[in-house]
Amino acid sequence: GGSDLEKVWEDCGCILWDLSASEEHAQFMVQNLILEVLLANIVVSPSSRVTEICLGIIGNISCHEALRGRINSTNGLVGAVAEQLLLDDVPCLCEACRVLSLCLKGDDGAIWAEALLAEPFICRILWIAETALNPLLLSKIVGLLLAVSENDAVSSILLPSLMKSDLSSLLINLLAFEMNKLREERQPERFEAMDTILRTLEALSTVEGYSREISLNRTLWQLAKEMIELPDKIEL
Protein backbone atom coordinates (compact mmCIF):
# COMPACT_ATOMS: atom_id res chain seq x y z
CA GLY A 1 0.00 0.00 0.00
CA GLY A 2 0.90 3.65 -0.32
CA SER A 3 1.48 4.07 3.41
CA ASP A 4 3.93 1.12 3.46
CA LEU A 5 5.86 2.52 0.51
CA GLU A 6 5.99 5.94 2.16
CA LYS A 7 7.36 4.38 5.37
CA VAL A 8 10.15 2.67 3.42
CA TRP A 9 10.88 5.95 1.58
CA GLU A 10 10.98 7.82 4.91
CA ASP A 11 13.40 5.31 6.48
CA CYS A 12 15.75 5.44 3.48
CA GLY A 13 15.40 9.21 3.17
CA CYS A 14 16.36 9.74 6.82
CA ILE A 15 19.48 7.61 6.32
CA LEU A 16 20.48 9.82 3.37
CA TRP A 17 19.65 12.91 5.43
CA ASP A 18 22.13 11.79 8.10
CA LEU A 19 24.79 10.73 5.59
CA SER A 20 24.61 14.03 3.69
CA ALA A 21 26.06 15.84 6.72
CA SER A 22 29.42 14.39 5.64
CA GLU A 23 30.93 16.25 2.67
CA GLU A 24 32.46 13.03 1.30
CA HIS A 25 29.12 11.25 1.38
CA ALA A 26 27.29 14.29 0.02
CA GLN A 27 29.76 14.51 -2.88
CA PHE A 28 29.13 10.85 -3.75
CA MET A 29 25.37 11.36 -3.54
CA VAL A 30 25.47 14.41 -5.81
CA GLN A 31 27.61 12.53 -8.33
CA ASN A 32 24.89 9.87 -8.38
CA LEU A 33 22.15 12.39 -9.23
CA ILE A 34 20.52 12.73 -5.82
CA LEU A 35 19.62 16.36 -6.53
CA GLU A 36 17.60 15.34 -9.57
CA VAL A 37 15.90 12.59 -7.53
CA LEU A 38 15.05 15.02 -4.72
CA LEU A 39 13.69 17.59 -7.17
CA ALA A 40 11.43 14.97 -8.74
CA ASN A 41 10.10 13.97 -5.32
CA ILE A 42 9.49 17.57 -4.24
CA VAL A 43 7.52 18.23 -7.42
CA VAL A 44 5.28 15.15 -7.32
CA SER A 45 5.04 13.99 -3.70
CA PRO A 46 1.79 14.77 -1.82
CA SER A 47 3.49 13.92 1.51
CA SER A 48 4.72 16.74 3.75
CA ARG A 49 7.12 14.35 5.47
CA VAL A 50 8.73 13.35 2.17
CA THR A 51 9.07 17.04 1.24
CA GLU A 52 10.65 17.80 4.62
CA ILE A 53 13.21 15.01 4.19
CA CYS A 54 14.06 16.14 0.65
CA LEU A 55 14.60 19.71 1.85
CA GLY A 56 16.62 18.46 4.82
CA ILE A 57 19.00 16.56 2.53
CA ILE A 58 19.34 19.59 0.24
CA GLY A 59 19.99 21.72 3.33
CA ASN A 60 22.81 19.44 4.45
CA ILE A 61 24.31 19.47 0.95
CA SER A 62 24.06 23.28 0.99
CA CYS A 63 26.30 23.32 4.06
CA HIS A 64 29.16 22.10 1.86
CA GLU A 65 30.34 25.16 -0.03
CA ALA A 66 31.93 23.13 -2.81
CA LEU A 67 28.57 21.54 -3.67
CA ARG A 68 26.36 24.64 -3.73
CA GLY A 69 27.19 25.23 -7.38
CA ARG A 70 25.68 21.85 -8.24
CA ILE A 71 22.48 22.85 -6.46
CA ASN A 72 22.34 26.15 -8.34
CA SER A 73 22.92 24.44 -11.68
CA THR A 74 20.29 21.71 -11.22
CA ASN A 75 17.58 22.85 -13.60
CA GLY A 76 14.40 23.82 -11.73
CA LEU A 77 15.70 23.17 -8.22
CA VAL A 78 16.11 26.81 -7.13
CA GLY A 79 12.53 27.65 -8.10
CA ALA A 80 11.17 24.46 -6.55
CA VAL A 81 12.78 25.22 -3.20
CA ALA A 82 11.48 28.80 -3.27
CA GLU A 83 7.95 27.52 -3.91
CA GLN A 84 8.06 25.51 -0.69
CA LEU A 85 7.62 28.81 1.15
CA LEU A 86 4.00 28.65 0.01
CA LEU A 87 3.37 25.47 2.05
CA ASP A 88 1.61 25.55 5.43
CA ASP A 89 3.59 22.70 7.04
CA VAL A 90 5.90 24.03 9.78
CA PRO A 91 8.72 21.41 9.46
CA CYS A 92 8.79 21.91 5.67
CA LEU A 93 8.91 25.68 6.07
CA CYS A 94 11.76 25.40 8.59
CA GLU A 95 13.81 23.26 6.21
CA ALA A 96 13.01 25.48 3.22
CA CYS A 97 14.18 28.53 5.17
CA ARG A 98 17.39 26.71 6.13
CA VAL A 99 18.19 25.90 2.49
CA LEU A 100 17.39 29.43 1.34
CA SER A 101 19.42 31.07 4.11
CA LEU A 102 22.49 28.95 3.37
CA CYS A 103 22.30 29.56 -0.38
CA LEU A 104 21.60 33.29 -0.04
CA LYS A 105 24.84 33.63 1.93
CA GLY A 106 26.88 31.99 -0.83
CA ASP A 107 28.75 33.54 -3.73
CA ASP A 108 25.82 32.72 -6.03
CA GLY A 109 23.25 34.17 -3.63
CA ALA A 110 21.98 36.52 -6.33
CA ILE A 111 20.53 33.50 -8.19
CA TRP A 112 18.37 32.71 -5.17
CA ALA A 113 17.53 36.36 -4.59
CA GLU A 114 16.18 36.65 -8.13
CA ALA A 115 14.00 33.58 -7.49
CA LEU A 116 12.54 35.19 -4.36
CA LEU A 117 11.98 38.62 -5.90
CA ALA A 118 8.48 37.80 -7.14
CA GLU A 119 5.79 39.56 -5.10
CA PRO A 120 4.12 36.34 -3.84
CA PHE A 121 7.39 35.26 -2.21
CA ILE A 122 8.13 38.69 -0.70
CA CYS A 123 4.62 38.83 0.78
CA ARG A 124 4.81 35.24 1.98
CA ILE A 125 8.15 35.75 3.77
CA LEU A 126 6.82 38.79 5.61
CA TRP A 127 3.51 37.05 6.38
CA ILE A 128 5.26 34.01 7.89
CA ALA A 129 7.47 36.27 10.01
CA GLU A 130 4.45 38.25 11.21
CA THR A 131 2.22 35.29 12.06
CA ALA A 132 4.61 32.48 13.09
CA LEU A 133 3.69 31.11 16.51
CA ASN A 134 6.36 28.40 16.47
CA PRO A 135 9.64 29.83 17.90
CA LEU A 136 11.78 27.64 15.63
CA LEU A 137 9.93 28.74 12.49
CA LEU A 138 10.18 32.36 13.60
CA SER A 139 13.93 31.97 14.08
CA LYS A 140 14.32 30.33 10.66
CA ILE A 141 12.29 32.91 8.71
CA VAL A 142 14.05 35.83 10.41
CA GLY A 143 17.33 34.00 9.76
CA LEU A 144 16.42 34.13 6.07
CA LEU A 145 15.98 37.91 6.38
CA LEU A 146 19.34 38.08 8.16
CA ALA A 147 20.97 36.22 5.25
CA VAL A 148 19.44 38.76 2.86
CA SER A 149 20.84 41.66 4.91
CA GLU A 150 24.37 40.27 5.20
CA ASN A 151 25.06 39.63 1.49
CA ASP A 152 25.55 42.84 -0.49
CA ALA A 153 24.56 41.31 -3.84
CA VAL A 154 21.42 39.76 -2.33
CA SER A 155 20.42 42.81 -0.30
CA SER A 156 20.62 45.06 -3.36
CA ILE A 157 18.05 42.82 -5.07
CA LEU A 158 15.62 42.02 -2.24
CA LEU A 159 15.88 44.77 0.38
CA PRO A 160 14.15 47.51 -1.67
CA SER A 161 10.98 45.40 -1.95
CA LEU A 162 11.19 44.18 1.65
CA MET A 163 11.75 47.65 3.09
CA LYS A 164 8.98 49.08 0.89
CA SER A 165 6.72 46.50 2.58
CA ASP A 166 7.79 47.88 5.99
CA LEU A 167 10.31 45.22 7.03
CA SER A 168 11.83 47.52 9.66
CA SER A 169 8.51 47.98 11.49
CA LEU A 170 7.85 44.25 11.31
CA LEU A 171 11.19 43.42 12.93
CA ILE A 172 10.70 46.02 15.67
CA ASN A 173 7.19 44.69 16.36
CA LEU A 174 8.59 41.17 16.57
CA LEU A 175 11.23 42.37 19.02
CA ALA A 176 8.53 44.09 21.12
CA PHE A 177 6.50 40.86 21.18
CA GLU A 178 9.51 38.82 22.27
CA MET A 179 10.31 41.39 24.97
CA ASN A 180 6.76 41.08 26.33
CA LYS A 181 7.16 37.30 26.41
CA LEU A 182 10.47 37.74 28.19
CA ARG A 183 8.92 39.97 30.86
CA GLU A 184 6.14 37.45 31.51
CA GLU A 185 8.25 34.30 31.69
CA ARG A 186 11.74 33.27 30.66
CA GLN A 187 11.31 30.77 27.81
CA PRO A 188 14.74 29.60 26.63
CA GLU A 189 13.24 28.14 23.44
CA ARG A 190 12.40 31.73 22.37
CA PHE A 191 15.89 33.16 22.95
CA GLU A 192 17.19 32.08 19.53
CA ALA A 193 14.38 33.92 17.76
CA MET A 194 15.04 37.11 19.74
CA ASP A 195 18.77 36.88 19.09
CA THR A 196 18.15 36.47 15.33
CA ILE A 197 15.80 39.46 15.31
CA LEU A 198 18.45 41.58 17.02
CA ARG A 199 21.16 40.42 14.62
CA THR A 200 18.94 41.25 11.65
CA LEU A 201 18.23 44.74 12.96
CA GLU A 202 21.95 45.20 13.55
CA ALA A 203 22.74 44.10 10.00
CA LEU A 204 20.12 46.45 8.55
CA SER A 205 21.52 49.33 10.58
CA THR A 206 24.76 49.04 8.59
CA VAL A 207 23.18 48.90 5.12
CA GLU A 208 23.52 52.17 3.24
CA GLY A 209 20.14 53.72 2.62
CA TYR A 210 18.40 52.00 5.53
CA SER A 211 20.67 52.62 8.52
CA ARG A 212 19.02 55.93 9.44
CA GLU A 213 15.54 54.40 9.42
CA ILE A 214 16.67 51.71 11.87
CA SER A 215 19.04 53.60 14.13
CA LEU A 216 16.75 56.59 14.75
CA ASN A 217 13.64 54.54 15.59
CA ARG A 218 12.49 55.59 19.05
CA THR A 219 10.65 52.35 19.74
CA LEU A 220 13.79 50.36 19.01
CA TRP A 221 15.81 52.60 21.29
CA GLN A 222 13.30 52.06 24.11
CA LEU A 223 13.31 48.29 23.61
CA ALA A 224 17.10 48.20 23.65
CA LYS A 225 17.13 50.27 26.84
CA GLU A 226 14.65 47.92 28.52
CA MET A 227 16.71 44.91 27.49
CA ILE A 228 19.86 46.41 29.02
CA GLU A 229 17.92 47.05 32.23
CA LEU A 230 16.67 43.47 32.59
CA PRO A 231 17.53 42.42 36.18
CA ASP A 232 18.76 38.92 35.28
CA LYS A 233 21.75 38.29 33.05
CA ILE A 234 20.71 36.94 29.67
CA GLU A 235 22.99 36.22 26.73
CA LEU A 236 21.42 38.44 24.09
UniProtKB/TrEMBL annotation:
Its main location: nucleus. Gene3D superfamilies: Leucine-rich Repeat Variant. The lineage of its organism: Eukaryota, Viridiplantae, Streptophyta, Embryophyta, Tracheophyta. One of its GO terms (cellular component) is nucleus. This is Protein saal1. It is found in: Nucleus. Keywords: Nucleus. Belongs to the SAAL1 family.
